[in-house]
Amino acid sequence: MAKRKKNTAAVALGRLGGWWGVKRVAQLVLGWLVVGGALAGVAGDVESYANRISSLVAPAKLATLGARGANSRVQKYVAILAEAKADGVAPKKVAGKAVAVVGMKGKAAKLTGEAMVRNLTIAERLGCLDSEGLGEMRRGQAPTVRRGPYRGEKLSVDHIIPRTVVPELDNLIANLELLPLKMNDGKNATIGARQVDLARKLHQAGLLSSGGLRAVERGGK
Questions:
Q1: Which of 41, 80, 82 is nearest to 57 (CA)?
Q2: Is residue 198 included in any domain, yes or no?
Q3: What is the mean pLDDT of residues 138-142?
Q4: What does the alpha-carbon distance between residue 101 and residue 115 come to, in Å, rounded to a whole number?
Q5: Which of 212, 151, 192, 201 is nearest to 174 (CA)?
Q6: Does residue 7 have a pLDDT over 90?
Q7: What range defines the domain where residue 215 resides?
Q8: Neighbouring-strand partners of residue 109
Q9: Band of residue 37 on the pLDDT scale cut at 50, 70, 90
Q10: Number of domains the chain is built from
Q11: How far is CA 169 from CA 52, 78, 88, 116, 118, in A?
Q12: For the residues 57-66, what does the mean pLDDT come to?
C-alpha cells in the first residue's frame, strides 16, 4: 500500500512538473514573440521615418533646387527627427537609414547623417521644438528660439562654408546648420578653421570638388 501511494505521488509530481515545464516554455515563447514584435516595430518605425526624410535629402533632388532651396528641407527633416525621438526611435538610426535609402555611402553618408542629428540637437537646446515651433518646421519655416541669449529670434539655416565662397555647397545637407538669425547675419563670408576642416572632409567624401576645396583654403589664409 505504501509503495502504491509513493508511486501515485511520483506520478502526480511528474505531471505537475510537466505542466510547469510546458508553462515555462509557453512563457519563454511568449517573451520571444513580444521582444521580437517590439524589435520589428522599432525597425519598422525607423524605416517609416527614414522614408519620410529621404525625399528631403536626396542629392538628385537637391541638385535641381535654386539658391537656398534646401533651407526649408532642413527645417522639415528636423521636425521629423523630433517626432521620431518623441516616439522612442533613435534619430541617429533614422538619419542613417534615410541617407542609405537615397544611396549615400561611406564618408558622405556619415557627414550628412551627423549634420542632420546635430541640427536636431541645436533646435532642442534652443527650445524650438514646442508645438508651435514644430508646426512651423513641418511647413519648412523657421521656428522661434525660446531659450538662451537669442530668445525671440528666428532659427535660420546657415551655410557653414559660405555659399558665396563655394556656390556648389549651397544645397548640400552636410553644409547646412541651424543658427539664430542674428548670428547668421553676423557671420558674413567668414572662413575659419572649422570651414577649412569641413571642406577637407567634404572633399574626401566626394561632396566637394578640388576647385571648391582650394577656394576655401585660400579664404582661410
A1: 80
A2: yes
A3: 98
A4: 17
A5: 201
A6: no
A7: 22-219
A8: none
A9: very low
A10: 1
A11: 23, 20, 33, 16, 18
A12: 97
